[in-house]
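Hey L., structure's done. Input below.
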Amino acid sequence: MLKLPFRKLDILVLGEFVPFFVIGVAAFTLLMIAVLLFREMVNYITIYGLSMAQVGLFFALSLPQTVAYTFPMAVLFAGLLAFGRMSDTNQITAVRAGGVGFFRIVLPALIFSWFVVLGTFLLSEKVAPQSTRLAREYIHSALVDHGITLRETDISYMDQEAGWLFAAASGEGNVFEDVKWWDFSRPGEITFYTAEEGIWQMGSWEFHNARVTNLKVGTGINSYDDDLEGGNGGRVVRSLYSPTLEMRISATPSNILAKGTRSPEEMSLQELRSYLHSSEIVGRSALYLRKIEGTYHLKIAAPFASIVFTLIAAPLGLAPQRSTSTMGIGFSMVLVFLYYLLTTFAVKIAEGGIVHPVVAAWLPNAIFLVAGAILNARFYMRRG
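Output:
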């Protein structure tokens, strides 16, 4: 019986798999743009009066992050349609007649999926964070030029050279709520300001219902919570309340909102790791810290969904009596929806402290990996 050379087998499988992967990236990118970006872009034009050129640049800068999200989806789409087409055209039957086993047929797609994982990491780490950050800063600057301000939350801005850290629960225009400001410019001492509201006017900040606490510390700003309780050799020297307190800080609301508020999507793994161990997280809630830690581990786990999706797509695609075009698209949409629904659930239980962020981040991959192993085992037992 004539056997198909392995090199020709690899070319055959990848010749079907790669084009469908490219189509999947394009299709899912358009879908995500329609769902996530299109409404926002239309609002910038119709409500805020930005030009098509400005919105177009914002769109271009936002694209790398969107494309990175689509890679695992495109792998699933490609696996279902490529293997389904090979099965429908009897190419799989011919290859199997040559003595080639099921796992050898799937191997080229798995190897390609590993390269997709590497590509996802490269795009997510080296391109997407910087482009997403530039997109936000650019659109913020464009809105300010039009006299428009948007509400931001979880604001943090640090001037390491001047020796201070500014944080607020939210801010819009010149008004910030739940303000905290640490002045650690003097060695061995921290002055901690809290206020219900901070307003920028006439070149200075006015804090309302403010409290000022002076601390003598031994280990710096990261030990603030312990120092407040007298730990780490720190002690409260003075604590004062003032209904109105005027402060001069070398940062305007525009600086703080444009450059100080970074979402996890704007940080690489290294930046997230540094951020979790930096003084910028001082005073943050446990919920916020779990959210950041969960995002860090999810950035590691998510790209490996490409491998898991390939293991699921192969037995489903090779199943007999299946319409490639309709069932392939339908299966991919349903499985992608289930995967990201499970991811959302895992993120929420991690934020709630029910499970560790590492467990939550890898839980969707683990469940789908078990499902893929069962599907492959059943297919192998039936067809060998």
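Strands lie at 152-159, 164-172, 175-183, 189-201, 204-216, 235-247. Residues 102-145 form the longest helix (44 residues).

-- N.
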